[in-house]
Amino acid sequence: MTEEQRRLEDARAGAPWRLWGPYLAERAWGTVREDYGAEGDAWGYLPHDHARSRTFRWNEDGLLGICDEGQRLCFALSLWNGRDPFLKERFFGLTGPEGNHGEDAKDYWFFLDNLPTHSYMRALYKYPQRRFPYEQLLDESRRRTRDDPEFELLDTGVFDGNRYWDLTVEYAKAGVDDVLCRVTVANHGPDAAELHLLPTLWFRNNWSWAQHGAHPSLSMVPEGAASGCLQVLADHHTLGRYHWTCEGGPEMLFTDNESNTERLFGSPNTTPYVKDAFHRRVVDGAVDAVNAARTGSKAAAWYRLAVPAGEERVVRMRLSAHMYTPPQEAWNGFDAVFAARMAEADAFHATLLAPEASADERLVQRQALAGLLWSKQFYHYDVHRWLAGDAGQPPPPDERWGGRNHAWLHLNNHDVISMPDTWEYPWYASWDLAFHCIPLALVDPDFAKDQLVLLLREWYMHPNGQLPAYEWAFGDVNPPVHAWAALRVYQIERRARGDGDVKFLERVFHKLLINFTWWVNRKDAEGRNVFQGGFLGLDNIGLFNRSEPLPGGGSLDQSDGTSWMAMYCLNMLAIALELAANDDCYEDVATKFLEHFFHIAHAINDRPATLGDEGVDLWDNEDDFYYDLLHLGGEQQYLRVRSMVGMIPLLAVQPVEAGVLERLPGFRARLEWFLANRPDLVGDAAAITRAGEMDRRLFAVVSESRLRAVLRRMLDETEFLSPYGLRSVSRWHADHPYRLDLGGQAYEVRYEPAESRSGLFGGNSNWRGPVWFPINFLIIEALQKFDWYYGPNFTVECPVGSGRMLTLWEVSVELSRRLIALFIRHEGRRPVFGGTTRFQDDPLWRDLIPFHEYFHGDNGAGLGASHQTGWTALVAKLLQQSGVPSVT
What we know:
Blueprint (H helix, E strand, L loop, with lengths): L2 H10 L7 E2 L20 H4 L2 H4 L11 E6 L4 E8 L12 E2 L9 E2 L2 E7 L5 E9 L5 H10 L20 E12 L2 E10 L5 E11 L13 E5 L7 E8 L3 E8 L3 E5 L5 H5 L11 H6 L12 E2 L1 E10 L4 E9 L13 H17 L8 H16 L1 E7 H6 L23 E7 L11 H14 L1 H10 L27 H16 L4 H22 L31 E3 L1 H22 L5 H20 L13 E2 L4 E2 L1 E5 L2 E5 L13 E4 L1 H6 L1 H13 L1 H4 L14 E4 L3 H11 L6 E2 L2 E2 L11 E5 L2 E5 L23 H18 L4 E3 L7 E3 H13 L16 H5 L12 E2 L6 E2 L10 H8 L7
Antiparallel strand pairs: 1-2, 2-3, 3-10, 4-5, 6-7, 7-8, 8-9, 9-17, 10-16, 11-12, 11-15, 12-13, 13-17, 14-16, 18-19, 20-23, 21-22, 23-24, 25-26, 27-28, 29-30, 31-32, 33-34
Helix pairs in contact: 8-23, 10-11, 10-12, 10-23, 11-12, 12-13, 13-14, 14-15, 15-17, 20-21
């Protein structure tokens, strides 16, 4: 057991090792929570220009910072290169309306290391020495169209001549409430340069909203100035007292975390010392902007670092519940703690890959997990209070009671949650979170389980059983993957520890019964076991927005919606069978999901007129593929878009071991009754009537013949199979776009391997060609399950036309290899970097790996959000399981 694993065991026993972590968001401006306007314009209500002057209501942000798990006390870096118009306190990016492909971060930062208890963390920011080109980025991006590439920070030339700073921030814990910080500033430019470094400590403003009567304070500790270090006392009524010790003799600045209403709105300030005081003091030279008494709720240590070309400087700080007297004792053992935690991080990560893994594979996995762990953020949102407003504040417009999230009055979140992206998506999304929990289970299964339980709690889940989608529209519908994630986390932990957390599985299962009922009641409108659901996380994959009424009326039978529900049935069936090993009452529940699965599988594959149904199944015999089915004006037609929608039926698959049926006679009897008495239903559930490898049985929507047909398209490099995984839309549509005239309007889907050319769902994501990790990962697991049943005699040609015959397990390994190849350096290049020469060739950039939201369908270049080490961190699991001969 490594030292980090011991800390995790201590945390399980109650030690608060997770009290401090990277829970400070990279962006709090431009969020739904901070929008109090009548129009629902979240990007415009509190823009980037207001962020430095306006107090945030719900949560704080900062540059590579930390906070406690309740975000009472925050710490982050502020910077000034002597040329920018204001301090760099947060990363910059374009809003949804400003970017030619939606919101887009325009800074370069990288998460390099992290441990589950955050006992060691490391990140890097590249800060230009020239004036940051805010206006150029805005103007050029507004000029470009959706057909143009995005205008990136490197394109401005601001890094030419290597005139930039590398700022490496590291954190190490000497104890649960003793956090050490080391900032290394490296000048990569050809000339000596000066950097103003302002590490900043502040309290989140709760007092302005009348939540708490007590007012926390920061104050200067008189002792220490003569000893070469300075100390600030942070006093909070629930967090207690902390002491912030800063090495050297920086000028200490104090102000209050209060809005500068004079700058923002032209109205008098309520306090002479406001949030943006440090900008005025450092950039404008206004000495009276800060509190000369050196007290307040926000403090900074102002270091002026003159660094020769090619050299670096190091600044050390310590935030501790222990007071060091004299303050210079804070440095006793400081460097030894860092050395120990770094060695412990090496030892911990070494356990996650096989010894034969390459150094580059280890680098990729470590940075993927680092990004995932850095993406844990404090999230606060009380919808009722947000709609009603706060005492002492102007009342929000009445229109909001009928606007965004008005039906989610019960929702009251105040937790640390795994976010999809630290800047572009600083809010949770339920189906993203399910995928995050898979790689999280490798390193911190307790946190992964807590996350899955959290979204099922009564202050998240709607009273009707729906899970919240994301803050832009909690009522949107994401694919029901929560049960799958819970089962996989259970299996991953069981494999690692030797036993599974049955209590967790049972706890999740009971809440998911409510959610499953919501799906059946709300998304199977006609009771035909054919489900709708809207866009279902796939954004613009369809001809039109499937979450809105269809153009010209009518209805849509969704191949993916129905298949997701078949998968949900099988996930719940698998959980019930696992629980039935300890409590035979669950056999009855397993039978319920068995029957429901048979009905859904039948609806997808065969709905004959003899049963009174005028429709046809979702399998198109002409194309040998699954499609959505449009009903309009008494007629129906397949929407023949070859997309991921047609491959999602593969995900509804579950092998069952022979021993399970022997141990559960009640379930086996019910299964045998169905086989004997309802051949009309079970005939569509693939291979359930015959035993496979090791006498296993198989529940699956897709039969053996249809599986082969789908795989012929999926493994064809002229269609779905790219060098880097499966495309979301077939490449065949590049020359053969699908068109449909509907309601007097023409709709079209063509293969678009890069960014989206439409504004559907904001235009910042594209499911019409690129490679996405979540569905690829599920397909890999589905193939492994099919192989578990069919065995080595079931082979397919991969790629199609190659003459190479592979088992389904080998196909899953091949797909994994292609996805991993996105990030691995081969012949001097990493595909994820695309054509960006600086990233491909520069030794200071080429091993800093961004984990993008999605990837170019042909060349693998990273696209969309650039820090999506939420679900793209699944690559860490793919690397871990490479060559492991087991689906669990």
